[in-house]
Amino acid sequence: MLDLGDSQITYRARYLASLPPLVDDGMMEKPRRLHMRLASDLSTASAADLDPKRIFIIEQNLLSLAEAIAARYFQHGPNAARVAKNAGLA
């Protein structure tokens, strides 16, 4: 447990900055939007609301979030997402 704790402290100390947005237009990227929507839905739900249909919808939303994260942060090669550079008006 101590090794794990030390590793997390080291990781956080080295990697404090967040990744840059792909497009600097002030809009939330898809993974962030999906996360916020899912977190809001789960934090406001009551146990009585969690029937099998609702749990299936949550599962589908989690899968969509995982796919959005993978597409945003883990693609390599020619299809990888690239940071857009704004061309100024000159």
Question: Can you walk through the features of this model?
Answer:
- The protein is mainly α and 90 residues long.
- The chain has one domain (21-90).
- It is built from three helices and no strands.
- Helix 2 runs antiparallel to helix 3 (52-73).
- It is extended and about 45 Å long.
Strand content: under 5%
Class derived from helix and strand content: mainly alpha
- How would the global form be characterised? extended
What's the pLDDT, averaged over the residues?
Answer: 81
Fold topology:
Layout: H1 2-14, H2 30-44, H3 52-73
Helix pairs in contact: 2-3
Quick recap:
The protein has about 90 residues and is mostly helical. It is about 55% helix and about 0% strand.
Observed structural traits:
mainly alpha, 3 helices, 90 residues, extended
